[in-house]
Amino acid sequence: MIRAIITDIEGTTTDIRFVHQVLFPYARQRLADFLRHEHEQPDVAAALAALRTEIDRPQASVEALIEQLFTYMDNDVKSTALKVLQGIIWRTGYENGDFRGHLYPDVAPQLEAWKAEGLQLCVYSSGSVDAQKLLFGYSDAGDVTPLFSGYFDTRVGAKRETESYQNIAEQLILPPQDLLFLSDIRQELDAARLAGWHTCQLIRDDADELSDHLQVNRFDQIALETFL
Ligand SMILES: CSCCC(=O)C(=O)COP(=O)(O)O
Ligand SMILES: [Mg+2]
Q1: Which of 60, 100, 140, 198 has the CA that lies 20 to 30 A from 17?
Q2: What HAMAP family would the database entry show (predicted)?
Q3: Which ligand minimizes its atom distance to the CA of 129?
């Protein structure tokens, strides 16, 4: 029986275009100036220290790190340090009302229904936990963070690695067969399934003909009794 649903964000709860055409450019345009001015701020300094460790260059200057971060952004590398920094920059955008977190209209009502049925709801995204809380806290549907009891990011591992799903199950103290992962990306679902989880693929745009996961277009098409 499904006892917890863990959802991806980009392409699942949220239009990919919001992430790639609103969030990513917002952070990209501000990143260099932000780091030049704020690199000594404790949370920024910690992310930069993590980046130096990530690239194994303990002496890298702020300018060298900026260059590295631009390379990551160009290639959509899911670096934990980049994701933390993007989240810090996005906070200003959300708080100023420059944008709100996009949610497909079927998402919040179905999350509410599952919550009312007693299911535990969590998020697993490459975006940092703080960035996840911002997107759901300042969403089109208002603050929906009270619906979630757990948030996971790349600190548990990458989304295409089976071990990441084992780590999440351990943290939730639930057996894998009680967990359902929702994502638009087949390779993420493959990894979750190898960890023993149930899976469901959201097809918001193009069909994925290579997938053998159960596919739906909207959250209200997910019937939990299907997952035995
Ligand atoms: C917290 S919203 C921004 C998501 C993000 O930064 C990203 O790279 C998308 O990752 P996902 O794992 O949700 O596909
Ligand atoms: Mg996704």
Answers
A1: 198
A2: Salvage_MtnC (MF_01681)
A3: 1
Is the pLDDT at 206 greater than 90, yes or no? Answer: no
How close is the Cα of 218 to the center of ligand 1, in Å? 19
Backbone angles phi, psi at 25, to 5 degrees: -65, -35
179, 183, 186, 189 alpha-carbon torsion, rounded to 10°:
-10
How would residue 34 be classed by pLDDT, with cut points 50, 70 and 90? Answer: very high
CA 55 to ligand 2 center in whole angstroms: 25
The ligand placed nearest to the CA atom of residue 159 is: 1
Q: Are 5 and 121 in contact (CB under 8 A)?
A: yes
Q: How far is the CA of 9 from the centre of ligand 1 (A)?
A: 6
Region 214-225 average pLDDT = 97
With H, G, I as helix, E, B as strand and everything else as coil, classify residue 87.
helix
Tokens of 111: 């999350």
Ligand 1 atom with least separation from CA of 78: 8
Task: Name 74's Cβ contacts closer than 8 Å, sequence gap at least 6.
Answer: none
* pLDDT band with cut points at 50, 70 and 90 for residue 228: confident
Ligand 2 center–CA 184 separation, angstroms = 5
Tell me 124's DSSP state: E
Q: Are strands 198-202 and 150-152 parallel, antiparallel or unpaired?
A: unpaired
Pocket of ligand 1 (CB under 6 A): 8-10, 19, 23, 78, 83, 86, 125-127, 131-132, 135, 159
Overall pTM > 0.90: yes
